[in-house]
């Protein structure tokens, strides 16, 4: 799973008919008015909080437009089809948390996709899918990428930032060892100290000061602490050695400590913006401030107590949460409670670069809720620029197998 998400990056920067799906009860009708009028002096009763929409079914599903009405071109469709084929083994094996599909719904399209000619990819999606809108369909979209930073297999001059694998003492506490106030579900991550007490794990400052020496394998050494900080936010990346070797690393775990988006802090302090002396409110602007003000920047980064541990990856691309490689301009991170992982997603946005057909193959810690997406832009300087500045709004549609859409009542039987 990609560790972080893009909202983390942004924080670091900072007419359809509604359907009541089968098997769901409609909302209860309003209660009859009371025969006793309230006293004029009585305070108004506050409205109850809005319910948490746990998945797509509860958010509501509506019929989308005909796929033929979408501006889908063959090149876009062909790259999406290739990613869809890679997703199919997982689609057929995993349970859909969104409530929109069943594994068997995907069998016809997955069987057809294996041999479908790429030159006719548009026809594949037209034939096998129907577009639906989840909730109001209003999308907010960010971007992420695979950073490339300088690194080395061995520690040497200029390469002193350790890239740690999972430490041996990072564990989940036994329930009886966890303070009662923290017993809110899954036991928290932490460690046992020398007295046998379960305590929070080392935070970023402690790790930077050497707390993990001898406790965790060092995969490699990075050259630049600022670049590595942002690689941790992305959750995966490439280390390029002076000899030209490429070491690809991916998310292995996290220390269980709090994530703080330093972009939000910098905004509150007046460091980011468009005024005199301020830095641009973007990833590039944040990095520029950290470099121009090394001591203040170091303290800012330490406000983010979260630390990401890595594993070395083999293969032709970073793996997303679905367990398949994510591809530039084809893979998008989504909340699996609202989008089946592996499903096609259509985006129409105010940033034209991100318009088109994507495949939901990843998740992110901050990619939560209906119509919240994080587009993947690959590696390289252009990927950094596009992803670092991506903040788009518009409309999102989820493409479902026609059988699933029909069962939900989203297309005519």
Q: Helical stretch count?
A: 12
Largest sheet: 6 strands, mixed, barrel
Question: What's the N-to-C terminus distance?
Answer: 37 Å
What class would the helix/strand composition place it in? alpha+beta
Topology pattern, helix = H, strand = E: HEHEHHHEEEEEEEHEHEEHHHEEEEEHEH
Mean pLDDT: 84
Cα-based radius of gyration, to the nearest Å: 24 Å
Query: What is the strand arrangement across the widest sheet?
Result: 4-17-14-16-15-18
From the structure provided, what is the oligomeric state, counting identical versus distinct chains?
Answer: single chain
How much of the sequence is in beta strands? 15-25%
Q: Can you tell me the residue ranges where pLDDT is under 50 for at least 5 consecutive residues? A: 1-52
Relative helix content: 10-25%
Total strands: 18
Please tell me what the overall shape is: globular
């Amino acid at each position: 799973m990609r560790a972080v998400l893009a909202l983390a990056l942004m924080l670091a920067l900072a007419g359809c008919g509604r359907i009541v799906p089968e098997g769901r009860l409609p909302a209860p009708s309003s209660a009859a008015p009371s025969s006793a009028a309230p006293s004029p002096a009585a305070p108004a009763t506050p409205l109850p909080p809005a319910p948490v929409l746990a998945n797509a079914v509860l958010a509501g599903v509506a019929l989308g437009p005909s796929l033929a009405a979408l501006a889908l071109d063959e090149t876009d469709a062909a790259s999406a089809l290739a990613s869809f084929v890679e997703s199919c083994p997982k689609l057929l094996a995993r349970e859909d948390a969104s409530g929109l599909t069943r594994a068997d719904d995907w069998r016809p399209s997955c069987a057809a996709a294996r041999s479908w000619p790429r030159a006719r990819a548009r026809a594949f999606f037209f034939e096998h899918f129907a577009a639906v809108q989840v909730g109001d369909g209003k999308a907010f979209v960010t971007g992420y990428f695979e950073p490339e930073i300088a690194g080395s297999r061995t520690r040497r001059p200029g390469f002193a930032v350790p890239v740690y694998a999972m430490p041996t003492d990072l564990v989940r506490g036994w329930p009886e060892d966890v303070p009662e106030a923290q017993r809110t579900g899954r036991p928290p991550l932490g460690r046992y100290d020398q007295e046998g007490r379960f305590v929070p794990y080392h935070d970023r400052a402690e790790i930077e000061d050497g707390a993990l020496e001898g406790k965790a394998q060092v995969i490699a050494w990075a050259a630049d602490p600022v670049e590595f900080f942002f690689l941790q936010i992305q959750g995966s990346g490439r280390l390029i050695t002076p000899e030209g070797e490429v070491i690809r690393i991916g998310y292995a775990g996290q220390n269980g400590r709090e994530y703080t988006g330093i972009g939000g802090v910098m905004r509150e302090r007046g460091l980011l913006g468009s005024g005199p002396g301020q830095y641009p409110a973007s990833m590039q602007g944040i990095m520029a401030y950290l470099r121009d003000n090394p001591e203040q920047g170091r303290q800012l980064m330490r406000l983010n107590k979260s630390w990401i541990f890595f594993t070395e990856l083999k293969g032709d691309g970073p793996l997303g949460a679905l367990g398949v490689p994510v591809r530039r301009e084809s893979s998008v991170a989504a909340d699996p409670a609202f989008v089946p992982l592996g499903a096609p997603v259509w985006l129409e946005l105010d940033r034209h670069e991100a318009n088109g057909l994507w495949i939901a193959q990843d998740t992110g810690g901050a990619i939560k809720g209906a119509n919240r997406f994080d587009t993947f832009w690959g590696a390289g300087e252009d990927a950094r620029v596009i992803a670092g500045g991506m903040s788009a709004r518009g409309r999102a549609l989820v493409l479902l197998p026609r059988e699933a859409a029909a069962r939900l009542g989203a297309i005519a039987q």
